[in-house]
Amino acid sequence: MRLGINRRWAYWQETKNSMTRLIIMILILTALSKVISAQEIVTDRPDQTESSTTVPNKSFQMEIGFGSGNYNSERLSLLPTALFRYGLTKSIELRFVEQLAAFKNKATSEAEFGLSDIEFGLKIQVLKKEGLNTEIAFISHIVIPTGSSELTNTNYGTINKLAISHGLNKFFDLGYNLGYNYYGISNGDLTYSLVLGIGLSEKIGMYVETFGEYSDFAELTSNFDSGLTYLIKDNLQLDLSLGLGLTQKMNYFSLGFSWNINCNHIKNK
């Protein structure tokens, strides 16, 4: 059912205000970066495999992406997708996810522009030892059905992943996730991803990855993606990525950036 004009206007006003707040936040963080000491950044984007590392204690990290993709008869544009991470301790981080999205069903011409369901979560570092080339973390998000009509799952849900990585040598890292998502209906989905990270230089990296899910314990889908990262500063990174479906009609392209801020240095100013 199409939304009425008044309802569409309300959604537009709501999402426009959300985008304005996000832009203001980015500008503030840009200004603050001039007085903040740099620190090494490890991100959860642009690949689908979440890293096995938490952000440093009392640091704030934003990971912002803009992209567009086709999924069978549907088109989804993210304008943007945002992950915010805060280091609560050395091994625990708080996480918040929100997306401003444009959705279109190409078969029916139904369209929607608005916010997706919000996610709150934790990442807990289970294993990280100096001299050991393996790291393990557990990630869990609660999904709250706050999104627009075509962008919500309508039920509360949960997203869970076990993230494992191995430093193979100076140039190569291997990471993989195993997960289970449940959105309040059916049996839920098993998810997987496997990524090979390659250091091309001190500032440039690339990756190749396969990922997918076993939907409702009945249908297996597999995809492939690849991308590049560029380290502008130790705490600021740009990225681009693209992906293709191997067992389904899917393709996407994304650009983004990630920024880490040490909150201790802000307090000491």
What does this structure look like?
The chain is globular, with a radius of gyration of 19 Å. The model is unreliable at 1-12 and 29-38 (pLDDT under 50). Strand 5 and strand 6 (134-144) form a beta hairpin. The N and C termini lie far apart (54 Å). Helices cover 13% and strands 56% of the residues. It has a twelve-stranded antiparallel β-barrel with strand order 1-2-3-5-6-7-8-9-10-11-12-13. The chain is built from two helices and 13 strands, in the order αβββββββββββββα. The chain has a single domain (5-268), classed as Porin. With 269 residues, it is mainly beta.
Computed Rg: 19 Å
Fold-level CATH name: Porin
Can you tell me the overall shape? Answer: globular
Q: How many structural domains in the coordinates?
A: 1
Please trace the helix and strand order, writing H or E for each element. HEEEEEEEEEEEEEH
Number of helices: 2
Q: In the CATH classification, which architecture applies?
A: Beta Barrel
Query: Helix fraction?
Result: 10-25%
Q: How many β-strands, per DSSP?
A: 13
Helices and strands: which structural class? mainly beta
